[in-house]
Amino acid sequence: MKLSTISSKKKLAILLSKLETFSNPKLHLEQYPTDPNIASELLWKAYLEGNISDKIIADLGAGTGILGIGALLLGSRKVFFVEKDNEAIEILRKNLQDFKVPGESFEIELMDISEFTEMVDTVVFNPPFGIQKKYSDRPFLEKSVEIGNAIYLIHNAGAEEYLVNFYENNGFKVEIFYRGKMLIRNQYFFHEREKQWINVILLKAIKEK
Ligand code: SAH
Question: Which residue's alpha carbon is at the smallest distance from atom 1 of ligand 1?
Fold first, then answer.
């Protein structure tokens, strides 16, 4: 795979759909992969706004890597994949190999995101929505404002007001740039049904000078 030659949002989504996802998702970590179309929506916006190409990126709670790998495909200089689950990281490593991502363009940080301290240009993430454990997204929000200037994230639609308040109170300008549904095919969230559509938003927060 040649890096940074992707010409459309749709092509990016198709490439990202080839990535392997969690083989053994863990309930307490709320591991569910971002849908490739939504990941592409998020990354393409950040890319058009100049926050991906040649930038240093943090992918918080990287899981199997869809957001960070997508950023690399769009020409990021370096991506920090921060993830505390070793099994997810094994799949991430395989995905990086399959996509022939050069070793110097990423670092894998096996740790809790609260321990990560590198300053970056752009932060991307799809946090635990706090369905299993209330406020489990909070450390992600706090870390993002600590380390980044441009932040792009996915969250459930019900969290909109709380997210807007959080980022504005921290001196960021906020835009909700996408509202839609994401299919979560999951084993564990919804016992009666195997899959469920949930309403999600994509939010951008830019630090005010
Ligand atoms: N970014 C991936 C995975 C999203 S699921 C994607 O978009 O597909 C959320 C991920 O955050 C899971 O992989 C989970 O293991 C990880 N995670 C949850 N809490 C974490 C924490 N405190 N520190 C580091 N990783 C965490």
Answer: 62
For 77-133, how does the pLDDT look when each residue is reduced to its tens digit (9 = 90+)? 999 999 999 999 999 999 999 999 999 999 999 999 999 999 999 999 999 987 777
Distance CA 33, CA 63 (A): 7
Assess whether the C-beta atom of 109 lies below 6 angstroms from ligand 1: no
Handedness of CA 54, 60, 63, 67 (dihedral sign): negative
Q: How many angstroms is it from 13 CA to the middle of ligand 1?
A: 20
